[in-house]
Amino acid sequence: MSRRRREVIRRRALRIEQDRVHPLYLFALTGKELLRLAEISRVSRDEGGHLLGYQRPEVRRHINNIVEYLNGGRVLFPNSIILALSSKIRFVEARGPKVDGGLAAVGTIEIPLPTDGEAKPAWIVDGQQRAIALSRLKDQGLPVPVNAFVAEHLELQREQFLRINSAKPLPRGLITELLPAISGALPANMAARRIPSALCDVLNQDPESPFRGLIRRASAAPADRKTNVVSDTAVVAMLSESLNSPSGCLFPYRNIATGETDFPAIRRLLLIYWSAVKAVFPEAWGFPPTRSRLMHGAGIQSMGRLMDRVMSGVDVSGKRARKHAERELAKIRPACQWTSGAWETLKGLRWNEVQNTPAHIKLLSNALLRSYLAG
């Protein structure tokens, strides 16, 4: 009995060598072919908490709009799909003279289609909504432009995904979660958020962290969203401010000259302070912001600013650091109205009227600091 012959998609293509290790290919595929050969790597976590994938969930309305347009008659669809290809692909260069000084090579790209149980030989880096829409068209033979590069490593795919989408409105939470998984150079605005993002991961996964399982991440399963009550954006903002401000208690743990960060010491400080917050305000900890403004963006960032005052200069390796934090935080307890009542120090603003705006965060931060100094 003869073995079944493997299907191969062959296309005329241009090869551009910006980097010999990761050549670029330009060719065309049909909507039907795209999802036969390319995976959509969804962002998620495995049982050990390790980050998987990078793509956000599909946006149904966006997909439906594309389908409606492409099914409507005359079509002009120049938007390319960007793929990362397996090294299993083969490029056969055509014979003949080069007419462009060698900028690009003309040839045929051969992409083997997977047999049952095999992994697909490509991953969609950009254009997943378009690819899904194309797979649902009446005309499955519509050709679309494809830009592709050879890269099997997930880290390189993530890096390109972030770079391609850096000027697009990607969900901030998705960017925040992907940043710690990128070790290469990033645009300055993203690089500055990589350390706070990594610390946010620590707070959400460390068994000793009071935030364990409470921080809402893009990779969270739908079943976990009821318990993920704290916005990762708020936590990252709190950490960024403390790390980057000379008056922040985390600032001394970064060596600006060498770029090194003392992660173990920062971890100890964060666990000590926020465990003390949980101990001083147990009735307000772990509830959704609709029930507790302590877990709200304004509460997290305001308590973060108080952390800079309470934990400044504290020896976090000492046994008394936790007692110090609890003793200092007890000074503000009488003034706090996290779950009911009105804030006298905020001119009678009711507890659930505090909003996650710069003005309210500043008001609440100042009120907490005044109560702390008065205590």
Shape label: elongated
The structural class is alpha+beta
User: Taking all residues together, what is the mean pLDDT?
Assistant: 84
Number of strands: 16
Please estimate the helix content. Answer: 25-40%
Count of discrete domains: 2
In terms of DSSP E residues, the strand content is 15-25%
Explain how this protein is built.
The chain is an alpha+beta fold and 375 residues long. The protein has helices spanning 31-37, 60-70, 128-135, 154-164, 172-178, 188-191, 194-205, 232-244, 263-280, 297-310, 321-329, 358-374, and strands spanning 8-16, 24-30, 38-39, 44-45, 51-52, 81-85, 90-93, 105-112, 122-126, 143-150, 215-216, 230-231, 254-255, 260-261, 342-343, 349-350. The chain folds into two domains: 8-160, no CATH class; 188-374, no CATH class. Helix content is 35%, strand content 17%. The strands form five sheets. The chain has an eight-stranded mixed beta sheet with strand order 3-9-6-10-2-1-8-7.
Write a concise keyword list for the protein shown above.
2 domains; alpha+beta; single chain; 375 residues; elongated
Write the layout of secondary structure elements.
Elements: E1 8-16, E2 24-30, H1 31-37, E3 38-39, E4 44-45, E5 51-52, H2 60-70, E6 81-85, E7 90-93, E8 105-112, E9 122-126, H3 128-135, E10 143-150, H4 154-164, H5 172-178, H6 188-191, H7 194-205, E11 215-216, E12 230-231, H8 232-244, E13 254-255, E14 260-261, H9 263-280, H10 297-310, H11 321-329, E15 342-343, E16 349-350, H12 358-374
Parallel strand pairs: 3-9, 6-10, 11-12
Antiparallel strand pairs: 1-2, 1-8, 2-10, 4-5, 6-9, 7-8, 13-14, 15-16
